[in-house]
Amino acid sequence: MSTTATSRRRRLAAVVAPVAAAALLLTGCNANERANDAAASASPTAVERGGTLRILTSATSVNWDPAMSQSLAITSLGLVERRLTAWKTDAEGNTTVVPDLATDTGTPSEDGKTWTFTLKDGLAFEDGTPITSADVKYSVERSFAPELSGGLSYHKSLLEGAEDYTGPYQGQELDSIETPDDKTIVFHLNSAYGDWPWIVSMPAFSAVPQGKDDPATYSTQPVATGPYRVAETVEGTSITLERNPEWDADTDEARAAGPDSIVFELGQDATVAAQRLIADSGEDQNAFGANFVPAAQLAQVQGGPAADRLVTSGPGALAYLAINTQAAGLDDVDVRKAISLAVDRNAYRVASGGEIAGDFASTLITPGIPGREEYETLFDDVEPSGDPEQAQQLLAGAGWDGRELRFVVKDDEASLAQAQAIQQGLQRAGLKVAIEPQADEVYTQTVTQGDGSGYDLTLGSWQPDFPSANGNIQPLFASSQIGGGGYNLARYSNPEVDDLIAQATAETDPEKAGTIWSQADRTIAADAPVVPLIYTKNSFLHGSKVVNFRIPDFPAYPNYLQTSLEQ
Amino acid sequence: MRVARFLGTRLASVVFVLLVVSLLTYAVFVVLPADPAQLACGKPCTPERLETARAFMQLDKSWVEQWWDFLHGVFAGRTFGGSGATITCPAPCLGYSFRLNTPVTELILNRFPVTASIAIGAAVLWLLAGVAGGVVAAVRRGTALDRSLMVGAITGVSAPSYLVGLLGILLFGFTLDMVPVSGYVPLRESPVDWAWHLVLPWVVLALLNAAIYTRLTRAQMLDALGSEYVRTARAKGITEGRVVTRHALRNVMIPVVTIFALDLGALLGGAVITEKVFSMAGLGALLIDAVGNTDVPVLVGVTVFTAAIVVVANLLVDVVYTLLDPRVRQGRVAR
Fold it and tell me: Is the domain covering B107-292 a CATH 3.30.470.10 domain?
């Protein structure tokens, strides 16, 4: 699993001596300038303007092409490209969808299938050209082009008549997006979709001027609409952003735009970057790490002087064990419950890095998502280490044949350690488990494509791409998401659940939708297609002059748009 | 005439080796069930979009066809995509990275100066230090100096570069605060900053590699110092310093040069771990990144480029041999 916020892949975790003389010569000067004072406080303050913010990341590139990006609305791309809507996070940790290029978060038609947005006045690209609804339409259209692949694609199956659309480069338009005038844009959907305001916060819903679109270079030379523009890119080494003079702060409630410039230091070794942030010298005081802090540095920081510069998220992604409900014998809910009870969730957490790795999970809707309601689960009266005896009884009652379970995981060290913890837990109840490590994409194909005959158990980790219970439930448990690239790893199919998902998806009143999602959550949990393990936590480090570096309840990543520097 | 034929044969074998390497590389990636289209498909990914991505990236062809397209592209350039917008990769095209939206040739040209800066500086350092250490150890055979040099050499050979790199960063970067811990400054921007940022990687690599040269030089030197022509030279009254440098060392350098050229060639293909630890965007870092992201075009392009460097390094060794040792040029078998 990638550990950067700038290029996350949140899907499946399942995740000296010969020159002593020269050295002596250099001792006189300070290579890494030291701070004179102790670590300055980084308490939340009002926006301070100025300075150069440095972002240390192990990623070797940032793809600025909105059609090719899976970037969260509050990280890298959000600094340069505005979308129809944006995410606003507050000091209490709430994340809300707010208007960005649009004047509001969209107006649905009676039937919820048509959404209309109006653009704000006075918006312009970095070259001063006014932004029109045609530029937004074009941006969405080009996300369908095969040469611009890899981006978030939720809208592609929602827009009407988009099945065979292959982008605007052959002169074809997507008729389900209408632009009656320069300010208005209308989307026609296949079916009612209450979370459409969140969908239009995704990168594809930026504005791209057709006249300046070269698909081969847009990923490094985008036309900025946000507070910053890309000033310089040194391939593999750094990207420098500078202020975009055409951006108007009065039209933007999601971005603080504190620093005068932002430098991405690319290809940084996560360990070295963490050491630099701990040392907090010179320019590094103005830096933060986009990668999770590695386990060793996490231990080093805790209790040390850098402890107050370590920011750990609340419970984020749901890490779970998926049970293939279509595999022989596993279609019996009692067998699945037995597996759930036999799992040693404590051992799993220890294998994942201990307490700081996350809290034990209960519901399938993750914390911080509207609609989440705690309910009585299978695990309420069970120790985190599980209850192998009760599991054994259930297995005997279900007439389990004792066959060996194929446990397919990614072949990285972290996944293997986690899989072994699960395997040992299950063995206590007499279950036979064989771990099968597979290379990344092979693994992805095994579990997301085909008929799923290649596995009985697998590990998954899921944080929704937008803060709606829809993003928690639909991708993992709708029967339409089995195989064909979908993430229903348990291959779980329940018409009742599908019906609830359809109802909640179509509901445009968020509160009513929340109630239905919660009901779906309970219904699924009763069938035990997955074993919720932990809600993972992410830790990040920042320099002493970095302020407003905060992680909201959702997503478990820092908000780059609000981060600024003490002046 | 002889020289021309010698060079002609060697060049033909260079081309042959590169063809085989590129063929094998393609074959390997077909045997491996890697599917770059899966990553290019987006999220969520439908089977139809997966097929479209595969066709656009020309991954729907057989691997032999793909190999042929690759070879063709090296000389004539390539065009990806069909009827709609296309992506062109001008010759010499070593492939196109759809992930980075850049021709592989351009990526290699961007990254090579970084790797070359690390490799050449480190190589010069370790050659000087290694050979000097070896000569001193041989001349002072059996003394405490000899033994400590050999212990140092064993330590250097055995130490993992990742560990030495990180320890170097911790000690000289953070604790002693003498050198920058990461980053690369291009030579044309500031030669001083360029060298200053490279000191630590040079020393780390030199430390690890000099050991082999110390041991090799020492052994060869001892052999040479015991030989008849050295005895003759001494008998003629030539000073010991001159005997060592002019007579013995010249013979010692033949195997040293062989190993040096191969080591340097391999290092020019990317000092993978060193680049990673010191956060320098060289070929090695590019390769590691490509492995992590299943960027097959980059893997193939960089592999072929690296192979070319190693093969050319070999060729140069052969040429240098002929300069150092006339017997090779004349086709006689060495002793």
Answer: no
